[in-house]
Amino acid sequence: METMDMNVYMVNDIIGDNPRFISPFCKPCGYSIWIRKNKIISNTSIQIYWEKLKYMSQNIDKLIQNAFKPEFYDFYGVDQNLIASSDEMCRQLIVDSFVLDTNDNSIGCCLSNPEFMFGHFIDCLWSDSWNLIYSYIC
Questions:
Q1: How far is it, in rounded angstroms, from Cα 67 to Cα 131?
Q2: What are 122's strand-pairing partners?
């Protein structure tokens, strides 16, 4: 698989100043499309990406709540001295990456917060119709 980074200005137009998303201007860029090696990304795939990112930006709280498991708070990589509860942890997670897989139009996403997770993240995968396939912390 290969990735194509998305236009950071378009990403920024869609997510605006939403604090639940990392800036698209951060390096490395976490906003991209996965494609099979030696394939060309179609305009349709790019349009699907923008539609999915817009949907996530409009439904971010609900999507994160569905992906979050209270036991994530007990993970060794979460500094509980800096975050009071699993509810607070869930409310303070941000999207570090947003990736469309062109094979099935699923969305992969990493959630974290460097203030209390220190290099760890929650890996999430949603189907094309936004059904959560999995979420786990690592």
A1: 10
A2: 111, 137
